[in-house]
Amino acid sequence: MSGAERETLTWDLFGTASRELAEQIADSGYRPDIILSVARGGLFVAGALGYALSVKNLHVMNVEFYTGVGERLPLPVMLPPVPNVVDLSGATVLVADDVADTGATLKLVRDFCGEHVADVRCAVVYEKPQSEVRCEYVWRHTPLWINFPWSTLPPVVQAEVLDA
Predict the structure, then answer these.
(1) What is the pLDDT of residues 21-43, one digit of tens each?
(2) Cα(152)–Cα(129) distance, integer angstroms
């Protein structure tokens, strides 16, 4: 995919995207009690939406799926700590992520919330055509690989690989 055309999101454009996404949510009348961020890319989206929608109750769910560009695990895996369902019980929840690519991660998170919350909806900056989850709030649709400002440059510190 290195030579393929890509969608590029800059920090400035992310500011526009997150504000317009928040306006979509507000205009729909949806008022979340909790914003549930899908780490890591969803952390940026959740923070921006939290400020724009005046929601201070932010939670994080860490789900591992992608291991590299176009490389992923067979299924998404929830990593600890998993949010306590008591904290979500009866709440109106907005799940925030950067992209709905296959939709598998969002489906896992939405299904996790489904039995415990009053209502759950999803907000993403980008949604791809192959996503199995159709998000209620989407800034843009694209079939392309996306260069996000938080993950385009290589890490300053390389992650340690643990021996099995």
Answers:
(1) 999 999 999 999 999 999 989 99
(2) 22
- In this prediction the pTM is 0.86
Residue 110 CA from chain centroid, whole number: 11
Q: Which domains does the chain have, with CATH numbers?
A: 6-147 (3.40.50.2020)
Residue 140 sits at φ, ψ, to 5 deg, of -145, 150
Report how far residue 60's alpha carbon sits from residue 42's, in angstroms, rounded to the nearest whole number: 9
Q: Return the C-alpha torsion angle 58, 41, 26, 108, nearest 10.
A: -80
Secondary-structure percent of the chain, ordered helix, strand, coil, rounded to 5: 25, 35, 40
Tokens 């340690």 correspond to 160
DSSP conformation letters of 105-132? HHHHHHHHHHTTSSEEEEEEEEE-TT-S
Distances (CA, A) of 113 to 25, 32, 40, 85: 19, 13, 18, 8
Structure tokens at 6: 């890509």
CB distance 35 to 94 below 8 Å: yes
